[in-house]
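To: structure desk
From: M.T.
Subject: fold request, one chain
Message: Could you run this one when you get a chance? Sequence is below, nothing fancy, just the single chain.
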Amino acid sequence: SNYHSSALHWNLNELKGIGKLLETVRENYRKIAARTQAKFHGEKGLDDFAALIAENLEAFMESSRLKAQSAQAREFLTLQPKEILPTATKAKITITNYLGGKYFFTVDEILMSDENLHLIESKHSKSGKLPSTGDIKDGLLKMMLYTNLENVSTAEKIYKSLPVLRLTSENLLGKLTSNSSAEEQPEFFRVNKLSARQAALVKNLFAEARENNFSVILEKG
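Reply: Done. Structure tokens follow.
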């Protein structure tokens, strides 16, 4: 909170001390291996990593970018058990910040209508009435990113982005959204026998969505 420059400057400044950090990593890997008899990966990877940074910071940044892009490609081809998707519209999304840095994500579903592009992040529970708190927080993190996008385009067409957090469960009946009327909530809670704690979580989540311009959908998956 006291740092007065950009996150990029912070990261580059921290990289200057990477050699000392890697030496600490090596030392503790050896200690852990000796104590547990666990076999670690060889240290060549650490050496290569340090050499790449020392040789050319731009090359290191490009290497990191390529790894992130590769991870995005793998995620794009993978269907997670925590994603119950009614449409096969998983898409890649690349976010560029004001410094030119790129961040590579996938979005579980997209829905295009006129000038609007819905970016849908899905979380599913097989046994509970609601996805886990951790999964919901992960979805909210994506909502934080997507609600702050300034320009969104695909195939050079500009869209208005509408972020959506879709929460599903095999044990839910009906559908409730953050745009539903207040009168619809008690009936949904009653039919699905949600506990007071679960109902409060849903209400807080809906309030968060309305305050920060994204939507939440809660339905059977």
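Reply (cont.): The first strand starts at residue 91 and ends at 96. Let me know if you need anything else for the meeting.
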